Amino acid sequence: MILSFILLILAGPRFVNVLWWLLKPGVYSVAFSNNIILPILGIAFVPWTTLMYVLAFPGGLSGLDWLFIGIGFFADIASYGGSGYGGKKQMSQPKPATPPTTPAQ
Fold first, then answer.
1. Residue 50: its pLDDT value, please?
2. What is the C-alpha to C-alpha distance for residues 31 and 25, in angstroms, rounded to an integer?
3. pTM value > 0.85
4. What does the DSSP assignment read for 35-87?
5. How many domains does the chain have?
6. Quick check: is 99 in a domain?
């Protein structure tokens, strides 16, 4: 469990999802009813939500499990929003002035 947490911090949720799927495919088979499309789309577009869903699913989904899935979804939305905000901030920076060029004679 601690190794998974360290990998999550260092490599990100997509890497952890793929690694976990390769090491324990039964967990993903149970969580997604042997459907291969949903986990692939989940890892590609909402990796935190997919990770939380797989963590919460084995005992069945109940009240607090949906809270954790919601937190995962919020983390996905925040990561997309944060990257958009960072790009906006970068684009609003003024361009450095270039010295005027003189034609060669």
1. 92
2. 10
3. no
4. -SHHHHHHHHH-HHHHHHHHHHGGG---HHHHHHHHHHHHHHHHHHHHHHHHH
5. 1
6. no
